[in-house]
Amino acid sequence: MKTEINGTQGPLPEGKVAIVVSRYNESITGQLLQGARETLQAAGLAEEDIQVIWVSGAWELPLPTSYAARRKETLAVITLGAVIKGETTHDEHINRSVCNALMDIGLGTGKPILLGLLTCNTVDQAIQRAGGNMGNKGSECAEAALEMIRVVDQMQDQGTPRVGFHR
Fold first, then answer.
1. Which of 10, 27, 90, 156 is labelled catalytic?
2. Are 19 and 51 in contact (CB under 8 A)?
3. Which residues contact 107 (CB under 8 A, 6 or more apart)?
4. Degrees, nearest 5: CA angle 116-117-123
């Protein structure tokens, strides 16, 4: 048995990566999607192994994420959205609920669920995180997905079954 598991390098198992992306703030989420796609393709995933699922907003991210994660061929699900603070605390409730739901899906399915939900105070902050001077969080999520896919694969190679649990 390996004493160290490291998902930063090595081959990827066969399978698909789903990307669930919010249409709300599409000028931002579209950039996140582009970064994620480019990163996955640069790592060797074929276009047909990347499924993009569009939803209306961040609140809608968990349900299709759950469906995608329960498919046997799905290796990981990347979720992308942008919730920008307004005049009320609405954004905080959306962000907290969506984040908790996505964590539950990952734990429940045993599949990596990557959080690319921008939770910014201003549109400019979101723009900077979607390819501006703060990088592209979609690309960063794709990199994390690739690493987690390898980690899970190595753990399964050691006999750890892929099973999820609910908290």
1. 90
2. yes
3. 164, 165, 166, 167
4. 120
For residue 158, what pLDDT is reported? 74
pLDDT digits (tens, 9 = 90+) for 19-37: 999 999 999 999 999 999 9
**Segment 54-79 mean pLDDT:** 98
Question: Nearest CA to 23 among 1, 55, 67?
Answer: 55
Q: What is the pTM of this model?
A: 0.93
Active site residue 93: no
Residues 119-145 pLDDT 10s: 999 999 999 999 988 899 999 999 999
DSSP 147: H
Contacts of 21 (CB under 8 A, 6+ apart): 29, 30, 32, 33, 52, 53, 54, 55, 79, 80, 81
Question: Residues 73, 16: contact at Cβ < 8 Å?
Answer: yes
